[in-house]
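Supplementary Methods. Inverse-folding protocol.

Structures were first reduced to a discrete structure-token string of length 382. This string, shown here, constituted the complete conditioning input.
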């Protein structure tokens, strides 16, 4: 039996539709803010995990880098000292060589002087002209001079050989020190480059974390504002719904609890279940009947898009919402539909009002849940 309903004033309906459009927009922005907050929170968790990994890899690598740098500095210091020793020995060799050259020149000059004298033999001349004492003194002086020259030449030669040997030994040490300095330099360079790369990655992660943290704080503030706007618009929508119910002369009741279930659904309206899902009167009852006064608001059990909004035979005034993934919900026997095909609706958003249109024995909401077109028991979802 159909309940006659008075037509509400057009101005109230238009205001209701305008408020609902704003409500849909606010709820869509709220969903986007919630999704963005979840993404940023996940990003921050990933960044923190990567920062811990980088710190764990950087600490031992930095220690190896510091050790390699110290070894390189030590090797370089050793090479500098070896080069100094080598330079000193080379200077000593040049001095010894110069002294040897002077002594050789002096010796050669004395030899030439001897041969320039008239007497073939200086001792023979002395024998002819001097006494035995002069001869003995001259011979002794010549012998001492010769021994002195010989000792000096031998000393210079020994010093030269010793300096050459020392220079050669230091040259070998120089090659080894240079090779060690080159090896430690390469190790220090590799360790420093690896640590530098990790340090750069760590700085990038820290900078990214700061940016994400600021964005998350902004999103939280925006979400708070959007939630305030959504609550205010929802209150306005329900206030206008009450006004419409008053104009229609039908009782009005507040909508059902909007706390989502474990499956993510909310009750579409408040009332008493009068018929469950399953066989009834020799046929399959494919939904849940919730008795409620005519005009009580019906809200979307889950966010989605309206794919049916209009008369549908025994269902009367029917709304079907597609939630994606093959999941859909249906709201039948409405007294008036508050949405149109193609409208986006958010969970808890108004879709219509309880009625008794179509094949109905009284005002109630016939609520269905369908997965890939097949009807499922709605209770596990609510």
């Amino acid at each position: 039996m159909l309940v006659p309903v008075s037509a509400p004033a057009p101005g109230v309906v238009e205001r209701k539709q305008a408020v609902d459009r704003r409500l849909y927009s606010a709820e869509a922005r709220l969903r986007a803010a919630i999704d963005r907050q979840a993404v940023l929170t996940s990003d921050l968790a990933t960044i923190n995990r990567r920062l811990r990994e980088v710190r764990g890899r950087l600490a031992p690598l930095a220690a190896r880098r510091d050790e390699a740098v110290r070894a390189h500095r030590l090797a370089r210091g050793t090479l500098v000292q070896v080069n100094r020793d080598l330079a000193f020995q080379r200077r000593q060799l040049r001095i010894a060589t110069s002294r040897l050259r002077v002594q050789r020149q002096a010796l050669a000059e004395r030899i030439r002087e001897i041969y320039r004298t008239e007497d073939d033999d200086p001792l023979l001349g002395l024998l002819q002209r001097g006494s035995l004492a002069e001869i003995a003194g001259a011979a002794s002086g010549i012998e001492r001079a010769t021994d002195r020259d010989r000792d000096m030449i031998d000393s210079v030669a020994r010093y030269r050989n010793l300096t050459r040997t020392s220079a050669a030994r230091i040259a070998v040490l120089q090659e080894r020190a240079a090779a060690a300095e080159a090896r430690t330099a390469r190790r220090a360079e590799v360790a420093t480059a690896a640590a530098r790369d990790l340090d750069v990655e760590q700085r990038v992660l820290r900078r990214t974390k700061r940016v994400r943290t600021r964005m998350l704080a902004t999103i939280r503030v925006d979400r708070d504002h959007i939630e305030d706007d959504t609550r205010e618009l929802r209150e306005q929508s329900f206030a206008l719904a009450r006004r419409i119910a008053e104009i229609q002369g039908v009782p009005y009741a507040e909508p059902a609890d909007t706390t989502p279930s474990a499956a993510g659904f909310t009750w579409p309206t408040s009332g008493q279940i009068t018929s469950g899902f399953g066989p009834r009167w020799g046929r399959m009852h494919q939904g849940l009947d919730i008795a409620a006064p005519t005009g009580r608001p019906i809200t979307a059990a889950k966010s989605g898009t309206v794919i049916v909004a209009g008369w549908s035979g025994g269902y009367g005034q029917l709304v079907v919402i597609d939630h994606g993934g093959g999941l859909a919900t249906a709201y039948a026997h409405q007294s008036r539909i508050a949405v149109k095909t193609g409208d986006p609706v958010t969970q808890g958003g108004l879709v219509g009002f309880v009625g008794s249109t179509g094949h109905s024995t009284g005002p109630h909401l016939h609520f269905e849940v369908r997965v890939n077109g097949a009807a499922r028991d709605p209770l596990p979802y609510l």
